[in-house]
From TrEMBL:
Belongs to the HMBS family. Its EC number is 2.5.1.61. InterPro entries: HemC, Porphobilin_deaminase_cofac_BS, Porphobilin_deaminase_N, Porphobilinogen_deaminase_C, Porphobilinogen_deaminase_C_sf. Residues 5-208 form the Porphobilinogen deaminase N-terminal domain. Its cofactor is dipyrromethane. Monomer. GO terms for molecular function: hydroxymethylbilane synthase activity. Binds 1 dipyrromethane group covalently. This is Porphobilinogen deaminase. The gene is hemC. Tetrapolymerization of the monopyrrole PBG into the hydroxymethylbilane pre-uroporphyrinogen in several discrete steps.
Length: 315
């Protein structure tokens, strides 16, 4: 690559850390890069995400990329809207961080140790529904702000705990603050949590190839594709908060001669919450090469299990 690649990034500690990993990988591959900070409406507003909409963090970056202001955009994959942008190519999904959610609680407490009536901050309807469904008597308090702001509410004694993505804490070097990593059996993460999406312009084939060959991880891409396909299919059919986790698992299969051989499969779990906090769960296993199909099938099953109830208020 004989031009300096401009990488667009938001200015938060998390965004800078994420962009930094991409920049380093490209520099190691011999591509000179430069970071360009983009401020998004999501950074300026303190309103709940549910009000300002998905895409508040990502659309300004995507515009900067499409218009040629930058050559590469790095997003938290889970913050991207499910509708593809025809101007852009999702050139790389790098190796995913641990996708689980994490509890940051006072006095080193775990969820089970928090007394009934404890306040737990989260702005995510998905986390709120799964927390309430545990039946622990926790009081879910809506909060917003960057990772530091949210953790400070626990340090200051304003809240007993907050739930955050473990990946975000890992990226800003604050794994020490975690008092419990939440088991996906209790708390399924957001579709694509812990993964990055690295985009370029659809006609910028040199950059597309560079990103793909330097950064893309097939297993991470397959897992995230299944989760996002599930989300997209559910969005079309309901307005429920959704969690999903796909994992590449080993399976034993008999070949033609009857010998067992190890094959890789994709295992997908999903959850959707009804407006009255009933959780609908389902899981399925499929081929790693048919990730999106697996996601769509699981969405159809979730809709079957509670389609009517999944339509939120006003629908
Ligand atoms: N919605 C905000 C957001 N977007 C990405 C992350 C963390 C990194 C990730 O989940 O990949 C976070 C913070 C959080 O959910 O705690």
């Amino acid at each position: 690559m004989n031009r300096t690649l401009r990488i667009g990034t938001r200015g938060s500690a998390l965004a800078l850390a994420q962009t930094g990993t991409v920049a380093e990988a490209l520099e190691r591959a011999g591509a000179p890069v430069e970071l360009v900070r983009i401020t998004t409406p999501g950074d300026r507003s303190t309103a709940p995400i549910a009000e300002i909409g998905v895409g508040v963090f990502t659309s300004a970056l995507r515009e900067a990329l499409a218009s040629g202001e930058v050559d590469i955009a790095v997003h938290s994959y889970k913050d991207l809207p499910t509708a593809p942008d025809p101007r852009l190519s999702l050139a790389a999904v790098p190796v995913r961080e641990d996708p689980r959610d994490a509890l940051v609680a006072r006095d080193g407490l775990t969820l089970g140790e928090l007394p009934s009536g404890s306040t737990v901050g989260t702005g995510s309807p998905r986390r709120a529904a799964q927390l309430r469904a545990l039946g622990l008597g926790l009081e879910v308090v809506p909060i917003r702000g960057n990772v530091d702001t949210r953790m400070r509410k626990v340090a200051d004694g304003e809240l007993d705990a907050v739930v955050l993505a473990r990946a975000g804490l890992a990226r800003v070097g604050r794994l020490d603050a975690i008092t419990e990593v939440l088991d996906p059996l209790q708390m399924l993460p957001a579709p694509a949590q812990g993964a990055l999406a690295v985009e370029c312009r659809v006609d910028d084939v040199d950059v597309e190839h560079l990103l793909q060959s330097t950064l893309d991880d097939a297993a991470s891409r397959a897992a995230v594709s299944a989760e996002r396909a599930m989300l997209a299919a559910l969005e079309a059919g309901c307005s429920a908060p959704v969690g999903a986790l796909a994992e590449v698992v080993e399976d034993i299969e008999d070949d033609a001669a009857g010998h067992g051989r190890t094959v890789l499969r994709l295992s997908l779990r999903g959850v959707a919450a009804t407006p009255d906090d009933q959780l609908i769960r389902a899981s399925a296993t499929g081929e790693t090469t048919a990730a999106e199909q697996l996601g769509r099938e699981l969405a159809a099953e979730l809709l079957d299990l509670g389609a009517a109830a999944l339509s939120g208020p006003g629908e």
